[in-house]
Write a structure and sequence with these properties.
The protein is built from four helices and 38 strands. It is mostly beta strands. Among the domains are: 213 residues, no CATH class; 168 residues, no CATH class. Strands 3, 5, 6, 10, 12, 14 and 18 form a seven-stranded mixed β-sheet that branches. The longest helix has 10 residues.
Length: 586
């Protein structure tokens, strides 16, 4: 038996940057700045950018790095993911359009790598063209060498680039896929770090900038910087004990589908207006469109040998539940379940789908299972993408898919604990299209188990998109009442008006609804409602899916949207069926 869990967690506690209007001098760094040094003191505005690479999102300037993590945050691991090697900052006057050039620019290369607090100071003119600057916008980029920023700007003077130049600048390498399918970046680039950026608008000069060094001391704002990449890695475990027969199981290879990573990803996320009462965490990119091109190559990752798949007493205990993201990863570490195939990837607005190939017999035969990390159109940036797979039995051939409900919220914030369930499907007859089911013989098809359906009290409905199919509920052993619904004599005569009962059979539901939203486990078969009649051709294929009731989507498996779903709130299928007739029912 083998399970997979695909989990999308917020990446490694993003680097945080706080702006505190406090002039600091003597920074040990080489720097360049395009400020006017001949202006009167009263014409200058002083701005101090205090960058914090504490351990996560919730760490801000002036707070300790031991600040508690938010539920959807994980620590930087390794800590080099938060290193700052150099900083570039562009200051624009707000509401000046795409062709505007900076009113100030500063670049500093740190003499030593900073993984804690660092302060960059810059100065700009309080008046431009005789008019006072009321609000400013900031474009901030750390570790520009990791993406060869100078090359991406095609030789332009960085101090005079336009806002449009920064909005549109992208990078094609690294953090992508090599021509042989391997990952370009498997560790944080030494001496360069990861690209970290942000674009924030409408920062009030009166509130956060001062005319003198002394006046700036008590002013400040807090803005988190985020990485322009995400990281993907895998965890595997197998059940311990001779009766589990997992001594021969192994992962033979992993592939992430091609046509997923853009050929060029944007350096900066979309501009976000500064919210003094918020935390400005929600960062994504909506710039990708129908003209975007993608790397066609699949990402090919190595397999995991049996000796490297940790034996544990209960692999199911490591399924993502309602613990925090960091608690989830800590559980792997505490059990010595190692991470595999770590790679850093450029952001993408597409779902990340792939296939894990595995063997139960040491490699003699190969099976596979898919995974899906959805994006719903929001670019995946600064995320930690975790796929957990495990083996419960090496000989039974029983496959269990364990998805975790994943939704993007509020432009990029991810909510882990919306809902969850385990989909259990025994290895019954399958075609390339789906599982076979049989008219008149429910038990010849697979008994489906939805374990511990947890929607946090929200009602749900189990349905199929083909009305020729229905559901037969059963108990955990697969048994059902086969003398529940009457069977009528189809031959109409003087003695039979169509209501003559000649026997009883099992009951078929068109759908199954749980209006209370109570956490529950559901056992059922899917069956055709009628014999195959070649004189009346009909669709013999169906998708089965679970949705919130009424009408709202929630994702139940790492699968694809069924044909015809075009809406953003379309349901996602659990599995597919192919009608097959062993028609001996009388």
């Amino acid at each position: 038996m083998k399970r997979y869990q695909s989990t999308l967690t917020k990446m490694t506690r993003p680097v945080c940057m706080a702006l505190a209007a406090l002039l600091m001098v003597g920074a040990m760094a080489s720097c360049s700045e395009n400020e006017n040094t001949e202006t009167a003191q009263s014409d200058n505005a002083y701005l101090s950018l205090s960058f914090s690479t504490g351990t996560g999102n919730s760490t801000r300037a002036g707070e300790t790095s031991g600040k508690a993590l938010a539920d959807n945050e994980t620590d930087a691991n390794p800590t080099q993911e938060s290193d700052i090697h150099n900083i570039k900052v562009w200051v624009f006057k707000s509401n000046t359009g795409d062709e505007a050039t900076p009113i100030s620019y500063k670049a500093e290369t740190l003499s030593e790598v900073k993984n804690g607090n660092y302060t960059l100071n810059l100065r700009f003119l309080r008046k431009i063209g005789g008019k006072e600057v009321k609000n400013i916008d900031l474009y901030i980029l750390a570790n520009s060498e990791s993406i060869n920023m100078l090359d991406q700007m095609k030789g332009k003077d960085l101090s005079s680039v336009t806002r449009k130049d920064l909005k549109e600048v992208s990078f094609t390498s690294p953090f992508g896929i090599n021509s042989d399918g391997t990952a370009e970046t498997k560790e944080v680039p030494a001496g360069k770090g990861l690209p970290i950026s942000r674009a924030i608008t409408e920062i009030s000069v009166d509130s956060h900038v001062a005319d003198t060094e002394e006046g700036a001391k008590d002013k400040g704002i807090k803005i988190p910087l985020v990485r322009a990449v995400s990281k993907l890695h895998f965890y595997f475990a197998r059940k311990k004990g001779n009766d589990a027969n997992t001594s021969q199981v192994k992962v033979t290879r992993i592939e992430v589908e091609g046509n997923t990573i853009p050929t060029a990803s944007y350096v900066f996320p979309d501009e976000e207006e500064y919210d003094e009462n918020g935390y400005n965490q929600d960062v994504t990119s909506q710039k990708y469109n129908s003209a975007t091109t993608y790397v066609l190559d699949a990402l090919k990752l190595e397999g995991v040998e049996n000796k490297d798949i940790k034996e544990v007493k209960d692999p199911e205990s490591f399924i993502k539940k309602d613990q925090t993201a960091q608690e989830y990863l800590d559980a792997f570490k505490q059990a010595d379940i190692g991470s595999h195939d770590l790679c850093y990837l450029r952001e993408t607005n597409k779902a990340i789908r792939g296939t894990i190939y595995y063997s139960l017999d040491g490699g003699t035969t190969e099976k596979h299972e898919t995974f899906n990390i959805p994006s719903e159109g929001n670019a995946i940036r600064n995320r930690e993408l975790v796929v957990y797979g495990y083996f419960l039995n090496g000989q039974m051939g029983k496959l269990t898919v364990t998805p975790t409900i994943q939704e993007w919220k509020d432009g990029g914030t991810f909510d882990f604990i919306d809902a969850s369930t385990n989909v259990v499907i025994p290895d019954k007859d399958q075609t390339a299209w789906g599982y076979k089911v049989y008219y008149g013989f429910p038990k010849l098809g697979p008994m489906i188990t939805l374990k511990d359906i947890d929607t946090k009290g929200k009602p749900w409905i189990l349905q199929t998109d083909n009305p020729m199919f229905g559901f037969v509920e059963c108990d955990k052993d697969g048994n059902y009442d086969d003398h529940k619904d009457p069977v009528y004599d189809p031959i109409i005569s003087d003695q039979n008006d169509g209501n003559k009962i000649i026997g009883y059979t099992y009951h078929i539901d068109d759908f199954i609804i749980n209006k209370s939203g109570k956490k529950d486990t559901l056992y059922f078969y899917v069956v055709p409602k009628s014999r195959l009649d070649l004189a009346k051709p009909h669709n013999v294929k169906a998708h089965v899916f679970l949705t919130k009731y009424p009408n709202d989507k929630f994702i139940l498996n790492p699968g694809f949207k069924y044909n015809g779903c075009k809406e953003a709130n379309s349901p996602v299928k659990i599995f597919t069926l192919n009608k097959y007739y062993k028609d001996n029912r009388k």
